[in-house]
Design brief:
Radius of gyration: 13 Å
Structural class: alpha+beta
Helix content: 10-25%
Distance between the termini: 34 Å
Strand content: 25-35%
Order of helices and strands: EHEEEE
Strand order of the largest sheet: 1-2-3
Oligomer: single chain
Largest sheet: 3 strands, mixed
Number of strands: 5
Length: 73
């Protein structure tokens, strides 16, 4: 049982955000009274140009239609 009020999901690289948000949504089903946060070490816009790394200090990700994710940028 998780006793802390916040659960943090760690992801190594965030591209589209679908995996992180899916994990967060499943955790929310099991722990509906917990705050779920996502931390990613690296954010990129795609796999074609890995030199394009984005520095984001924070923001909100929200589920979007058709399994997509609305990213903060």
């Amino acid at each position: 049982m998780i006793t802390e009020p916040t659960i943090i999901v760690f992801d190594d690289i965030l591209t589209l955000g679908r995996t992180s948000i899916a994990c967060s949504l499943e955790l929310q089903k099991v722990h509906p009274n917990k705050e779920i946060k996502i931390f990613c070490a690296i954010r990129t816009r795609g796999w074609k140009d890995l030199k394009n790394i984005i520095d984001i200090s924070g923001g909100r990700m929200n589920p979007a239609g058709n399994g997509g994710v609305q990213l903060p940028d």
